[in-house]
Amino acid sequence: MKQILYILVFALSLSGIYTSCKKDSLAAMRDDEVQALDKYVKDHDLAAYKDVSGIYFKSTERSNDTTLIRPGFKVMLQYNIFRIDSVKVFSTEDKNGYTFSEDPFYVDVSNTVINQSYVQQIAGMHLGLKKMHIGDRAFMVIPSELAFKAVDYSLSLNIPRFTTLLVYVYAKKGYPSGTY
After folding, report:
1. With a threshold of 0.85, does the pTM exceed it?
2. pLDDT of residue 20
């Protein structure tokens, strides 16, 4: 009986040593995201577009409108949002690629009704939109820390933990706070 007890204690000790030396799975997932992001940035020559906030922001088309998007604005957006592996997760387009309407986005407005929209919860979108004018088009690379972080939306939204997002956005119309 003592031999079995010693073997069990030994086995438990070994498993404790093994798991303490094993890298945390969340940390490993985060490291994988950082590696994929670094590779994407390098492959697409985006290093110069990194913002102090952590997003990569590249203006793709500048409008003639000089109205800079500010906190409190309601912006009517057309967008396509992909995971870094090119899987589309959000879009204002239908299945044939046609956009018939825009989606309202409230910049830096904290409201439970508004924040129920998953796109509204992407902090990096708020940061990027404040670099745009009404009518501009832009491309953003948003690391998970400014998107959905470690939250697993793989079943509901097809967005696993630590997913970098690629955002193509057109700020079609905008309304300052209090005018909508």
Report:
1. no
2. 46
pLDDT at 96: 83
CB 94 within 8 A of CB 100: yes
Check whether 112 has a pLDDT greater than 80: no
Residue type, 148: F
Which residue from 157, 144, 124 is spatially nearest to 33, judged by alpha carbons? 144
CATH number belonging to the domain at 23-175, selected among 3.30.450.20, 3.30.1330.60, 3.10.50.40, 1.10.760.10: 3.10.50.40
Q: How far apart are CA 21 and CA 138, in angstroms?
A: 44
Q: Helix or strand or coil: residue 85? A: coil
pLDDT at 173: 94
* Type of residue found at 113: V
Tokens standing for 100?
């018939």
Q: Are 95 and 175 in contact (CB under 8 A)?
A: no
